[in-house]
Write a structure and sequence with these properties.
Number of strands: 3
Shape: globular
Mean pLDDT: 89
Helix content: 40-55%
Order of helices and strands: HEEEHH
Low-confidence stretches: none
């Protein structure tokens, strides 16, 4: 599966992260990637100046490597997370 770099994809990633208990904040950051996780606090800071593609890639990468409890998700979100974990991201 290839991720499409659309606002809809970003919205789906944001909804998935919120369902998993993460808090998302869009802020000015001096970090090189599109997003970062504040040490174990489940708060994700997204660089608000990144372009749409970089925001999507950063959030998708975080989801691929995060410990997730998929019992918090509905069936559509579980399917999306499963597909996401199978996707090879290209930065």
């Amino acid at each position: 599966m290839a991720l499409s770099y659309t606002q809809h994809t970003l919205d789906k990633l944001e909804a998935l992260l919120r369902s998993l208990g993460f808090k998302l904040r869009y802020e000015k950051g001096n970090f090189k990637t599109g997003a970062c996780v504040l040490q174990q606090s489940r708060v994700i800071i997204v660089n608000k100046f990144s372009n749409l593609e970089n925001k999507i890639l950063a959030l998708a990468d975080l989801l691929q490597h995060a410990d997730t409890d998929d019992s918090l998700l509905d069936e559509k979100q579980k399917a999306f997370l499963y597909l996401l974990k199978q996707t090879k991201l290209e930065f």
